[in-house]
Each structure stands twice: as C-alpha cells, then as structure tokens.
Write a structure and sequence with these properties.
Elements: E1 6-11, H1 21-37, E2 42-45, H2 59-69, E3 74-81, H3 87-100, E4 105-110, H4 115-120, H5 128-143, E5 148-151, E6 156-160, E7 174-178, H6 183-191, E8 194-197, H7 203-222, E9 232-240, H8 244-251, H9 255-264, H10 278-285, E10 288-291, H11 293-307, E11 312-316, H12 323-342, H13 346-357, H14 359-383
Parallel strand pairs: 1-2, 1-11, 2-3, 3-4, 4-7, 7-8, 8-9, 9-10, 9-11
Antiparallel strand pairs: 5-6
Helix pairs in contact: 2-3, 3-5, 6-7, 11-12
C-alpha cells in the first residue's frame, strides 16, 4: 500500500460532435491551467487521429504549449502510439520536450487504441503490439546514450544516437498503457517503468488490472527490476458535486454522448450491450463515482483496498457535465478528496485538537497575563 496518493487526469480528450473544435482545444488548455492551480500532480494527453471525438493528434505539441502556461503540474503523453512513429525521431522529440519543460514531461507509450488510426497508415492491428515492443526497447536504449543499428520491416536505423541526453536524470519518466491485454504489463515490467491501467474500474476491469500488476511484478523480478507501486497509475471515472442529486443532474449534459461514442466508434464498449440506464450501471458496477466528495473518498478507498495500492489516481476527463460544473468538480476533488489521501490535514487536526484540549488552561493563562499587565500599569500610575 502506498502512503501518499498523487492526483492526475487522463485527457484523451473527449469532445462531442456539436462543439467547435478550436474552442474545445482551448478549453482543454484552460483545464490544465486550472489543475495546475488546484495542485493536481500530473496530466496525460492522448494521441488520436480519427473518430471525431478525441481530437488531439500530437500530445507533444500540446504539452509544449501547456508547459508555458503552467508552473507545477507534470505533463505526459497519454499515450504516444509507438507503431505510428520512427523510433529514433520520436526519442529525439521527447528528449527535446524533456528539456523544454525542465523535466516536467513524461513519456507514456502504447500500441495505439483505435484500429482506424492504424488502418489509415497501412498498419495491420495484429502488428501493433509487436511494433510497440520493438520501439520501446529502442527508446530506452537511445535515452541511455547507446548507438543503435537495427532494421525491422518498418524502420531502418544506422548508427542512431541521440545528440542530447535527457534533461531528467538518468532519463525521463516512462510508462506503458495497459488495459485488457497483458502486453502493456509485460513491457512495463520488463523495463521496470510505470504502468497506466486504463479501461475502467468495473469489477471485471479491476480483475484485469490486478492480473496485469501480478504480471508486472513477475516480469520485473525476472529482469532484475524493482516493482514499485508508486509507479502504477489507475484511471477511473468521477463526477462529484455538493449532493448526489446535483451530480446526477450535471452528468445528463454529456453522459449519453460519451456512451454512444464508445458504442459507435471505439474498439470496445464502455457500457455493456443492453444497458438502457448507463448512469445506474456506472454507479452500481463500480465503473464510476457520481456523487459527493465523501462518495469519492469511499470509492478510492475501495480501489486501494482491492488492488493493494497504487501511486496515482487518474481521472478520465470525459466532459459529462457542462464547463462550469466540470470546473466545480475538479475544485471539490482538490479541496476535499485529495487531502484525505495525501495526509495534508492531519497535522492541522493534531494542532487543533491539542489547542482544544488545553483551551481552559490556555484561556486562564491568557486572562492572567492580561490582568497582570493591567495591574502593573495601575501600579506605575499610582507611583507617578
């Protein structure tokens, strides 16, 4: 079990077809600025090229702009689809981003989640995970300063060596996306890097995540790496408000469109077929928390207990509510939920309780001190 739970978001992003895409991306940037002010630790930005909903094609470009508008929050690619990029050129870009952000950039990778993205550039989906592993090996070797000559059916590297080391030492932080397939856990464990568990937190999804962590630990041991739960990030769904009734009303804005996108376009449905009331299914299945800050605390406690602990609770940014209610959600999470898991209020409570327990004693001492000053002044006046 980890002692300190960091907070983050996973920004695909999701924007329904009715919205102005320019303004939608601007709002995503405004969200990162707000999360930076609210002390969120990190945000991961996705790469997608088709489907109409997830409209950021180059997370590195978005991160470079966001880094100039924020001060503290760490920014990761969530994730770069490795089969879509020449391994050497991608490593070079990411090292540049590491320098530009002064070490706030993180390198999240995966095989690519949308089949239609791969098809558009002639990639067979059956090859994506093999290509991801080939590229990931090269990314790490290049960032270690090695020179690589290696040829595959999709790249040809000749004496490839980066001209800059990472700004972050010994190298920038890396993480691999892992959902239903064990390939992400195998790759992450083999290299001893972070794991991003995506795909929800329903009972069925949690079983996959727990199995994947066991695979991660086994691979880490086999490759003499340390399996550190602080590097495990779990992605889930939240929307909270002051009351459960208000939270449910808020998500009427966009929950159905979100469900429809996964049914119509994404490669797996997020709500099982035949479910007519997605709100009830999300809540009862444990796939999402739609309620109050107290509900969110209980929800996270259940995930921590069920998994044995992880390092970052990641909120999938979904736009179920309108912009004002969405901003309020993040503020409530930061003010009332995160402190519970970051132990930032305990010392204040100890100090308050101590003062309360000695209130009578301290009040008497204070009154006596005031009275003593009054008496001394009267004595001086009498002497004068």
């Amino acid at each position: 079990m980890t002692d300190y739970l960091r907070s983050g978001i996973f920004l695909a992003p999701f924007h329904d077809l009715s919205q102005n895409p320019t303004l939608a991306m601007q709002r995503d940037m405004e969200l990162l600025e707000q999360l930076d002010r609210l002390n969120y630790h990190e945000a991961w930005i996705g790469e997608h090229h088709s489907g109409g909903f997830e409209i950021i094609a180059c997370p590195e470009m978005f991160i470079a702009a966001a880094a100039e508008r924020t001060r503290h929050i760490r920014l990761g690619t969530g994730v770069v689809s490795l089969p879509y990029h020449n391994p050497f050129m991608l490593a070079d870009r990411m090292v540049q981003l590491d320098h530009m952000t002064r070490g706030r950039a993180m390198f999240g990778v995966g095989p690519g989640s949308l089949v239609h993205d791969a098809k558009k550039i002639g990639i067979d989906p059956a090859d994506q995970r093999r290509r991801m592993n080939e590229s990931l090996d090269i990314q790490i070797e290049l960032m270690q300063g090695k020179t690589i000559t290696r040829k595959s059916d999709w790249f040809d590297l000749q004496d490839a060596k980066l001209q800059l080391p990472c700004y972050s030492q010994p190298m920038m932080e890396l993480a691999v996306a892992a959902a239903r397939s064990p390939s992400g856990a195998l790759a992450a464990g083999r290299h001893g890097i972070g794991m991003l568990s995506i795909g929800g937190t329903s009972n069925d999804a949690m079983n996959h995540h727990i199995e994947n962590w066991a695979i991660y630990e086994e691979q880490a041991r086999h490759n003499n790496k340390v399996a550190d739960r602080r590097h495990w990030r779990l992605v889930t769904l939240f929307h909270i408000a002051e009351t459960r009734e208000q939270a449910r009303k808020n998500v009427e804005f966009g929950l159905i469109k979100f469900r429809d996108y996964f049914d119509d376009v994404a490669t797996f449905p997020i709500v099982p077929a035949g479910i007519t009331d997605p709100f009830t299914w999300f809540v009862e299945s444990g796939a999402a928390c739609i309620g109050t800050p107290d509900d969110a605390i209980d929800f996270i406690e259940r995930l921590l207990t069920g998994t044995g602990g992880f390092g970052v609770i990641m909120e999938l940014a979904h736009n179920w509510a309108d912009w004002e209610a969405t901003k309020r959600h993040y503020e409530l999470m930061a003010r009332y939920v995160h402190p519970h898991f970051q132990r930032s209020r305990e010392w204040r409570r100890d100090s308050y309780d101590y003062a309360k327990a000695h209130h009578g004693e301290f009040t008497g001492q204070s009154a006596a001190a005031v009275q003593a000053e009054i008496d001394r002044r009267k004595q001086r006046q009498a002497a004068e």
